[in-house]
Amino acid sequence: MEAGAVDLMLSPKQREQLVKFREKVSDVLQPYHNDYWLLRFLKARNFNLKKSESMFRKNVLWREENKISQLYSEYKEPEVLQKYKPGGKLGNAKDGRPVFLDPIGNVDFKGLLHSVTVSDATKFYIKTLESLQRDVISQTEKLKRQIVGVYYIVDMENLGHHHLWKPGVQFTTSVIQQCEQQYPELLHKVIVVRAPRMFPLAYSIVKPFLNEQTRKKVVVFKDDFESELLSVIDADLLPKYWGGNLVEDGDPMCPRTVSLAGKVPKEWYMTGRDLSVDSSQMTTTEIARGGTLQLTYKTSQCNSVLRYEFRTQEHDIGFGVKRLHDDGSKTPVVKTERHSCHLVPEIGELILEDPGTYIVKFDNSFSWSRSKKLSYWIELLEPDLEENDSKDEDNQGDEEEEEDDDFVQATEG
C-alpha cells in the first residue's frame, strides 16, 4: 500500500500535523511507512511533533540495530520455549483485525527464565509482536482497507502470587515497554478474562508502563465474558473453552491453536548447571555499586566474531557493545540492556561486520546499593584471510575442514 493512500479520518489539524511529521522524518522513511504507520507514532505522543519524531527515529534505529526483519525470518526459539510458550493466533475478527489469545495465567515465568536466556525470551516476544504487526499489514492489503491494530485476549485463570516473582515481573514490564516503544498503537483492544481477585494488584504493577491510550483499551471480565468475545470473533474460530465452537481432538482448549504454557519441568532448568566454558577460563571480578567494567577489542578484519558468556552471582547486570570511531564517537552495536544472568548464563556471539575497535561494557550504574560479582569469558575470532586464500588456490573442492580452523584467536585489548 502506498504511503498516504489510506483514509485515516483525521481532523484538519491532525492531518496538518501528519504532513509536517512526514516532512520531518523524510530522510529515514521506508516504503512501508504509510500514513497509518506514521500516525501510530503521532497518536502515541498525542500529536506532539518533537516527541513523535524522537520516538520514530529511535524505532528506525532499533529495527536496524536489532536486525528485526532477519530475526523475524530466521530466529528459532529454544525447544523449551516451543513447548511452554503461551498463546496463539485465532485468525481474524469479524471486522478484519487479527486476534491473539494469551493464557498468561498459565505461564511459568520462573521456570522459563531458569531454562532460557533473557535474550532468547525477549527475541521470542519481539518475533510475536512483529508477526502481529505484519498480520495487520497483510489484512490491510487483502481487504483493501486500513486495518487498525489487533485484538489481544488475555486469560488470567491461574494467576497467582508466583507471578509476582521479581525477575518475572521485570521481564514482563520490559516486554510491555518494548511493545509501547517499538510497536505503538498495535493493540486495538485488550480483553482480560477470568480475572481473579489478585488481578488489581498485578495490574497495578504493569499499569505505569502502559501509556494512557493503551489503558483506555483494556476491558476486564471476571466471568460472563463469552458474549464479548463472540461479538469480536466468529464462534467457529474461538475455542470452546472460551465460549466458541472450536474443538481439537475433543479438547475444548485447542492446544494446537493456542499454546497453553504450563509448569516447566526442572530438568529443563539451566540454573546450577556448569557454564559451557570451563570455569578456569572465566574471569571473575566485582563491579562496584554504580560502577561499570569496559573491555576493548580490536579487529582488522571484516566479519570477525565476538563470542561471550557471562553470569553474575546475584542480581542482574547491564551488557552492551559499542564501536569506537577515530574521532572518539561511539556507535551502539548491541544496546546496553539489563540481563538476569544470575538465573541463566547469558551466552551469545556477535558478528562484527567492520574492522575497528569495539568496547564491551558491563554496566552496574543503575544500582546504587549493590555491587555485582561477575564471571565472564570473551573471545574475538578473526577470519584468517591468508589461510582462506591458500585453501582456495591449493585445496579447491576440499570443504571438510573444521570450522574453527578458519579463525585465529585475537588477544584481549
From TrEMBL:
Q: Which residues form the GOLD domain?
A: 280-380
- The CRAL-TRIO domain extends over 77-250
Report residue spans for region: Disordered.
385-413
Record SMART domains = CRAL_TRIO_N, SEC14
Q: Residue ranges under compositional bias (Acidic residues)?
A: 385-407
Gene Ontology cellular component terms for the protein in this record: cytoplasm
This chain belongs to the protein called SEC14-like protein 2
Print the organism lineage. Answer: Eukaryota, Metazoa, Echinodermata, Eleutherozoa, Echinozoa
